[in-house]
Design brief:
Number of strands: 10
Shape: elongated
Number of helices: 8
Structural class: alpha+beta
Strand order of the largest sheet: 4-3-7-1-2-10
Helix content: 10-25%
Distance between the termini: 12 Å
Strand content: 15-25%
Number of domains: 2
Length: about 240
């Protein structure tokens, strides 16, 4: 699945000089297709490219205002969606910098500071995401939260291995339901046996995740709370790039 690339226009390249070390450019942004379905998570740098080339717009979820002036059908306190292009978002960023600087990630340029949007929407893209979560080491570590599923301790990724609950020698397959994180010591203790054969209990039964595990981890951060509005009603396989 390909999302159109954006290129910074020459007139704005100079404004981004010196921002390579800016952490704000590495912040994550949820991408919606034109039907408001979540399809991807990208870096802020990629999001700004799409915005500056008029390929996308910013979607801001406002929980504070509830019903807008003259708006019908919205209950007080319900989220309100506001659409911004790059120029109007730049103006809003001046107020955000003044009144709520800690609520945003920031990109500092030669001419201005701009808040990193949490959500953008593609104008001409209506494809849907794949409905499966890729089975790989990164997603397995994320699903199990870097926790050994036998001793229950948390470890750095470098100190974890992937264990087949039902060993390959006994017909075990490479699947979400048969692979778990295990520390080196527990993996060696278990060997080519099942947990019952090794007298080891599992922390939890391995299951196929409904959505990308890395998205689940990010949703635990309050600054990405606006994503839930769309992820609660979207496919659970949003890709993280």
């Amino acid at each position: 699945m390909q999302i159109p690339d954006g290129v910074l226009p020459p007139s704005l390249v100079a404004a981004y000089e010196g921002t390579a070390a800016n952490d704000g450019l590495n912040a994550k942004v949820l991408v919606l297709n034109k039907l408001y379905v979540a399809v991807r998570v990208v870096s802020a740098k990629r999001a700004f490219c799409l915005l500056l080339n008029n390929i996308a717009e910013i979607i801001h979820v406002d929980y504070a205002s509830g019903r807008a002036d003259g708006e019908q059908g919205a209950e007080p306190g319900s989220p309100r969606y506001i659409n911004y292009d790059f120029d109007s978002w730049l103006q809003i960023s001046e107020l955000q910098r003044q009144f709520e600087p800690d609520r945003h990630d920031w990109v500092k340029t030669v001419r201005f500071d701009i808040a990193v949007p949490r959500i953008i929407r593609l104008f001409g893209y209506d494809r849907l995401p794949e409905q499966t979560v890729k089975l790989n080491r990164r997603n397995l570590f994320a699903r199990d939260r870097n926790q050994c599923q036998y001793c229950g301790r948390h470890f750095p990724t470098s100190e974890l291995s992937i264990d087949h609950v039902n060993p390959r020698s006994l017909g075990g397959q490479d699947s979400w339901e048969n692979l778990v994180c295990a520390c080196i010591r527990c993996n060696a203790r278990k060997g080519g046996r099942t947990p019952d054969q090794a007298g080891m209990k599992m922390i939890r039964r391995p299951e196929r995740p409904r959505r990308n595990p890395l998205i689940t981890i990010r949703l635990g951060n309050e600054k990405y709370s606006s994503w839930k509005t769309f992820l609660d009603h979207a496919y659970w396989s949003v890709e993280l790039r």
